[in-house]
TrEMBL record:
Gene Ontology molecular function terms on file: glycosyltransferase activity
Signal peptide (UniProt feature, chain positions): none
Alphabetical list of Pfam families matching this protein: Pribosyltran
Name the UniProt record assigns to this protein: Phosphoribosyltransferase
Gene3D superfamilies: 3.40.50.2020
Source organism of this protein record: Nocardia acididurans
InterPro entries: PRTase-like (IPR029057), PRTase_dom (IPR000836)
Residue ranges of domain Phosphoribosyltransferase in the record: 9-150
Domain of life: Bacteria
Keyword annotations of the record: Glycosyltransferase, Transferase
Keyword Secreted assigned: no
Length: 164
């Protein structure tokens, strides 16, 4: 048995569809899906199509810097979504994995005072996560190789700091 969880593009398609079905079966009808970039973009897009939700927002959060390497705390990167756009909405926060849960907690707490309801959906959930997500495709304690991040970039970019 491998020490890593392997998610292929094909399996991701099945996983995201099953996750969407879990949300639909629960009767939750989000007004918008808030994606945590970058891994959550794939999840949010898939859920948006499966749940017929066209209103997708993105929140950029920096936390992981490599395999099992992370910053002390997650940091929101600009542009930060306007809470005006979230006010009164039923929000589904989408990400690829709830590992420590710190990123999900940051995003959920950011919008919880402004929205009617917020729930979280992830492909993978780890047992030590600070956040118990309402919707989970699979639980694991292994490192996950996602199809979108398992290969190195095709180019090496110099990191840039964006103005807020």
């Amino acid at each position: 048995m491998s020490d890593r969880e392997e998610l292929s593009w094909e399996l991701f398609g099945d996983a995201s569809r099953e996750l969407a079905q879990e949300i639909a079966d629960d009767g939750f009808e989000p007004d918008l899906i808030l994606s945590i970039a970058r891994g959550g973009l794939f999840v949010a897009g898939s859920l948006g199509y499966a749940l017929d939700v066209k209103n997708l927002h993105v929140m950029n959060v920096e936390f992981y810097t490599g395999v099992d390497q992370r910053l002390a705390m997650p940091v929101m990167l600009p542009p930060v979504p306007s809470v005006v756009d979230l006010t009164g909405a039923k929000v589904l926060v989408a990400d690829d994995v709830a590992d420590t849960g710190k990123t999900l907690r940051l995003v959920r707490d950011f919008c919880s005072d402004h929205v009617a309801e917020v729930r979280c959906a992830v492909i993978y959930h780890k047992p030590h996560s600070e956040v118990d997500c309402e919707y989970v495709w699979k639980r694991t304690d292994r490192w996950i190789n996602f199809p979108w991040s398992v290969l190195p970039p095709v180019t090496n970019r110099t990191p840039r700091v964006l103005d807020a």
